[in-house]
Amino acid sequence: MKSRYYLWLSFSLCSACKFVPYSGNDVYNKQATLDRDEAVHYKNSLEWWYYTGHLRDEKTGKNYGLEYVFFHFNPRNKKDYMMVNFALTDEGNKAFYYDYHITPLKTVLEPELPFKFELNKGKGSYSLEGMKGNYTLSGKMRKHDVAIALNTSTTSAPVFHDSSGYEVYGKYAKAGYYSYPDLDARGQIMLNEDTLHVSGKLWYDRQWNCIDVWQRELAWDWVSVQFEGPSSELMIYKLYNTVQKDTIYGGSYIKSDGEIIHIEPEEIFLREKNYWVSNKSKIRYPIKWQLNIPKLDLSVDIEAVVPDQELTLKFTPIHKLRYWEGMCRVEGEMAGKPIKGNSYIEMTNRHLFQ
User: Fold this and answer.
1) Nearest to 349 by CA among 325, 322, 313, 310
2) Residue span of the structural domain in which 54 resides
């Protein structure tokens, strides 16, 4: 219980006087590199290896959404912690399953490639390993009959956001950030006693030095889009300080030929159009948006395929972290031509708007 309490403090009281997480080991270089930055960063304040995407049953054509992420953090410059989040969206049955596990580690992790992470809790098991676009994701939920066994590959180069692989979030944070936005994924989903052979595309985000974006007064929205025909990718984020009423936007667009276009804050217009209220938390989340980026001559609607994709992480019996992350569809126009695609959207601290 004591370890979980410290963990909750690190995420929820970052700006409070009671406890300020330690970030003295965070790593800042002129340029991020795969050889150095894909591996664990020693005693990093908060870093993650984050996969989201859409998968299709090769037999039935049914669609599924996946979130699978490992977090590593050391909030007191002492003990390392790891957390895994695992969520699956069943679009056809409008069902959402999720699982998570948080644990202190017996030893401090050292950087090595390929990385290999493994956690177990009761009937749940979670592992992730690989490097440079080739990854193996294997997970089994504790409380649901849901499991995955996936392998990824890519022929594309990674995207180093803001050119250097270090994204500056206004005055609040500077975090290492690169992506593989179009990983080819193939494998199995085991769902309610059925084994589904699936394939699709995953978006992989690698970030570090992230403790400052988890301040209590900050709400965070992250949007990824994988466009179809011709294929291209888009990432935008919105960081909102509910105390100072300050909003920060940013993003990257990756053209089909691999060219990366950095998107400035004043070029992003994201408007919420429809909402869903959680029966459990009573938090109101947007589930439909209109996105306009004049620089790209882009105007699209983004809509959740299932309204209820809310996760509740319980750190102690009374302390919880709730966020929404889910599978979405995109449709609209770019350069006067119809365009569509798949999206994943994450929203944290939405209760601050209420």
Assistant:
1) 322
2) 36-214
Residue 292 lies in a domain: yes
Q: How many helices, marked H, and strands, marked E, lie in the chain?
A: 2, 22
Q: What is the maximum span of the chain, computed from C-alpha positions, in angstroms?
A: 57
- Domain identity same for 195 and 231: no
Of 254, 72, 321, nearest to 176 (Cα)? 72
Tell me the pLDDT tens digit for each residue of 239-257: 999 888 899 999 999 999 9
The tens digit of pLDDT for each residue in 206-241 reads 999 998 877 778 899 999 999 997 899 999 999 999
Query: Quick one: tokens of 32?
Result: 């991020």
Report helix, strand or coil for 295.
helix
Helix (H, G, I), strand (E, B) or coil at 340: strand
247 and 123 belong to one structural domain: no
Between CA 79 and CA 3 the distance in angstroms is: 9
Burial label for 302, CB within 10 Å (0-12, 13-18, 19+), is buried
Any domain includes 240: yes
Q: Model confidence over 73-94: pLDDT tens digits? A: 999 999 999 999 999 999 999 9
How far, in whole angstroms, is CA 27 from its chain's centroid? 21
CB 161 within 8 A of CB 252: yes
Q: What is the pLDDT of residue 6?
A: 36
Question: pTM for the whole thing?
Answer: 0.94
C-alpha closest to that of 137 among 60, 57, 52 = 52
- Tell me, what's the pLDDT at 171? 87
Residue 196 and residue 281 in one domain: no
CATH of the domain at 68: 2.40.370.10
Q: What's the distance, CA 15 to chain centroid? A: 23
Count up the domains in the chain and report the number: 2
208/237 same-domain check? no
pLDDT at 18: 52
